[in-house]
Amino acid sequence: SSGINAEYGGLLGQLRQILSEEDASRVLVRDLIRERKEIGAGFTVMVKEYNDKKVDQEKQLEKVHKELAEASQNAAKLEKERNQLHNTLKGAKTAAGRSAAS
């Protein structure tokens, strides 16, 4: 009977050891899952920030393109006006020369 009790006690000890290791394993898995979720959440935030910056940069680029187009149009208008003034002055000089000659 004492042999059976000793064997029972030994088996009970092994069972406790297995259950203890199983609990430790569950805690480890739970911690790993929590850690992975935190990493995933952090990654999601980083992706969102990247996308927000990208959208902002695209808006700024559009604005710069628009401003460049306007500046180019203004430059073309000024060039046209300059040419008109130049031709007007040329015409005035020619007219002044004709009247002086006559």
**Number of DSSP helices?**
1
Give a short account of the largest sheet. none
The oligomeric state of the chains shown is single chain
Share of helical residues:
over 70%
Contiguous runs where pLDDT drops below 50 for at least 5 residues: none
- Spell the H/E element sequence: H
Percent in strands: under 5%
Mean pLDDT: 93
Number of strands: 0
* Helix/strand structural class: mainly alpha
Structure keywords:
102 residues; mainly alpha
Write a structural description.
This protein has 102 residues and is mainly α. It has 1 helix and no strands. It is rod-shaped. It starts with a helix and ends with a helix. The model has no long low-confidence stretch (mean pLDDT 93).
In short:
The chain has 102 residues and is mostly helical. It has one helix at residues 2-101.
Which helices and strands appear, and what pairs or packs with what?
Layout: H1 2-101
